[in-house]
Recover the amino acids of this structure.
């Protein structure tokens, strides 16, 4: 068994985190992760309302008595998200561990600290990690450019970023982005990390609520980056929408003659489907 500052601090068996994944990190999945001795995070925003989040926390508790937390991802959104209400639901549910990502957790820290909630912040640069430490986070997950989801705009891979973060910080540093097995864990520990945090690898597990066909594709497809023009870079699995981009979307629209009158929705769909080639139409 491997003991680190992370396992001691959180009372978990293994220095392994299943970082919050939108729509994947459900009650059943997070409870499975917790029961295996690692740490899982429910994703608050998977639930449409703070009330639903409260119920999801209760459902998780019904399935495990081991530690787990809630991920609060703070990102720009066309539809305003009631973040303070989600934070209140987390606190009122008695959750003692939160994973924040997207933006600095600073505005929420006084509320979390008052309620005895520990915050682990996930970020993509040493600068942001130092800020997280300064505002009272108990640990940071440092996300290299390999990471799925939003890997930051700096293009620094884990191999370079992790040792820099370890040297700069006093609080535990958890390696994130591109880790998928025991070799990665050993390498991260050798570089001074207190554990690893994984997304994609957990998404490929039997317990993840993801279609089996998609799990099979992990070994076959490369990941792709998009949305770079909007400083909202995202890494996803390569897919037909990305490959065919605008042309596919526009031909679908013409063939089906779908009437779209909601310009907000239209912009959103174009953003998603056209991605980097979005600007051609405007
Ligand atoms: C399907 C999926 C959904 C994700 N959703 C979120 C999210 O809502 N919030 C977040 O902070 N990170 C999210 N992530 C990123 C992961 O939490 C994690 O940082 C990343 O997957 C680590 O890189 P790896 O996939 O190489 O292990 C998501 C990742 C995946 C694969």
């Amino acid at each position: 068994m491997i003991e680190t500052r992370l396992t001691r601090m959180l009372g978990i068996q293994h220095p392994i985190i299943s970082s919050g994944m939108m729509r994947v990190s459900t009650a059943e999945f997070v409870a499975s992760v917790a029961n295996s001795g690692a740490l899982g995070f429910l994703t608050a925003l998977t639930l449409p309302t703070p009330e639903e989040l409260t119920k999801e926390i209760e459902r998780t508790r019904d399935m495990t008595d081991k530690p787990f937390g809630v991920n609060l991802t703070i990102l720009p959104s066309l539809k305003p998200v009631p973040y303070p209400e989600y934070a209140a639901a987390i606190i009122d549910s008695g959750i003692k561990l939160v994973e924040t990502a997207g933006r600095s957790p600073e505005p929420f820290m006084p509320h979390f600290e008052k309620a005895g909630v520990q915050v682990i912040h996930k970020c993509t640069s040493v600068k942001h990690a130092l800020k997280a430490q300064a505002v009272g986070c108990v640990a940071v997950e440092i996300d290299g450019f390999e990471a799925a989801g939003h890997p930051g705009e700096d293009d620094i891979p884990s191999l370079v970023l992790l040792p820099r973060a370890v040297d700069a910080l006093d609080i535990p540093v958890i390696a994130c982005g591109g880790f998928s097995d025991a070799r990665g864990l050993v390498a991260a520990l050798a570089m001074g990390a207190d554990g690893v945090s994984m997304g994609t690898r957990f998404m490929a597990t039997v317990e993840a609520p993801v279609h089996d066909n998609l799990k099979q594709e992990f070994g076959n497809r490369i990941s792709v980056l998009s949305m770079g023009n909007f400083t909202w870079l995202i890494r996803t699995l390569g897919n037909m929408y990305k490959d065919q981009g605008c042309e596919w979307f526009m031909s679908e629209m013409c063939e089906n003659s779908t009437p779209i009158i909601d310009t907000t929705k239209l912009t959103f769909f174009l953003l998603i489907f056209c991605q980097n080639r979005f600007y051609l139409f405007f």
Q: What stands out?
A: Residues 222-281 form one domain.
